[in-house]
C-alpha cells in the first residue's frame, strides 16, 4: 500500500507565497500521523485553477497514473481536488472501483470506503445533476440569444445562405435557385425534375433538398436554421 498526498493552489501568488500549500500539507501530515499512515509522495499543484478537471492537471494526472489497488490518497479539502461536483463524482467512483481510498479531511476522512461515503456520493450526485442542468440551460440560453441575433450556430447551413464572420448572409445563386424551385413547383414539375433543373444552373441540390426548401413556411428566414 502506498500513501500519497495532494495539495493545490489556484493562483501563482498563492503558489509563490506558499502559505496555502504549507497549511494544506501540515493538515495532511497531521492527519496521516494520527491514522498511522506514512506519506510516500506528495503531489503539489501550483497555480492551477480548480475548474480544470483533476485528470487534466499536471500533478493530478500524474497522481492518477501511479495509483494501484490498496493505495491511499489524502487531501485537506474537497475543493483542493475537485471544484466541479461532476468531476468529483466521476473520480470518486473510479477510485472506489479501483480499490483506492480517498481521504478528504474536511469531509471526515475516507470518502470511498467508510460510513460517510454513501452520504458524500448522494450529495455529490445531486449537486452534479444540478451542475449539468445549469450547463445545459446556459448552452440553450446562449444558442437562443445567438439565434435571435442572427448568429450562425454551426452545423449544416440552410440552403440559400452562407456563413460570413459568424452570421448567415444571402447566397445570391442559391436565392435565385429557391425562386426557381417555387416557380417550377407551381407548374406541377416533380421534385427530381426541379432538382435537375436547378443543378443545370450550376447549383447543387438533391430532390430531398428541394422538398425541404419548399416545405419552409412563408416568411422563413435564415435564423430558423433548419437543415437542407
TrEMBL record:
Origin: domain of life: Bacteria
One GO MF term attached to the UniProt entry: DNA binding
One biological process term in Gene Ontology: DNA integration
Coiled coil: none
Keyword Amino-acid biosynthesis: no
Keywords: DNA integration, DNA recombination, DNA-binding
InterPro entries in the cross-refs: DNA_bind_recomb_sf, Recombinase_CS, Resolv_N, Resolvase-like_N_sf, SSR_resolvase
Active-site residue list: 10
Resolvase/invertase-type recombinase catalytic domain span: 2-150
Official protein name in the record: DNA invertase Pin-like site-specific DNA recombinase
Amino acid at each position: 500500500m502506498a500513501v500519497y498526498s495532494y495539495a493545490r493552489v489556484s493562483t501563482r501568488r498563492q503558489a509563490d507565497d506558499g502559505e496555502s500549500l504549507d497549511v494544506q500539507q501540515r493538515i495532511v501530515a497531521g492527519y496521516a500521523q494520527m491514522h498511522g499512515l506514512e506519506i510516500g509522495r506528495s503531489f503539489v499543484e501550483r497555480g492551477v485553477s480548480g475548474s480544470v478537471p483533476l485528470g487534466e492537471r499536471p500533478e493530478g494526472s500524474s497522481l492518477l497514473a501511479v495509483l494501484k489497488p490498496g493505495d491511499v490518497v489524502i487531501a485537506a479539502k474537497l475543493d483542493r481536488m475537485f471544484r466541479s461536483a461532476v468531476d468529483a463524482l466521476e473520480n470518486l467512483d473510479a477510485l472506489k472501483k479501483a480499490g483506492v481510498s480517498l481521504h478528504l479531511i474536511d469531509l471526515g476522512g475516507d470518502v470511498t470506503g467508510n460510513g460517510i461515503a454513501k452520504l458524500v456520493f448522494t450529495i455529490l450526485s445531486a449537486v452534479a445533476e444540478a451542475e449539468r442542468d445549469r450547463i445545459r440551460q446556459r448552452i440553450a440560453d446562449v444558442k437562443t440569444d445567438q439565434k435571435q441575433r442572427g448568429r450562425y450556430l454551426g452545423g449544416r447551413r440552410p440552403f440559400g445562405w452562407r456563413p460570413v464572420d459568424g452570421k448567415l448572409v444571402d447566397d445570391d445563386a442559391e436565392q435565385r435557385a429557391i425562386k426557381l424551385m417555387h416557380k417550377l413547383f407551381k407548374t406541377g414539375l416533380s421534385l427530381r425534375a426541379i432538382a435537375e433543373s436547378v443543378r443545370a444552373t450550376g447549383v447543387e441540390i438533391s430532390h430531398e433538398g428541394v422538398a425541404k426548401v419548399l416545405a419552409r413556411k412563408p416568411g422563413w428566414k435564415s435564423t430558423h436554421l433548419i437543415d437542407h
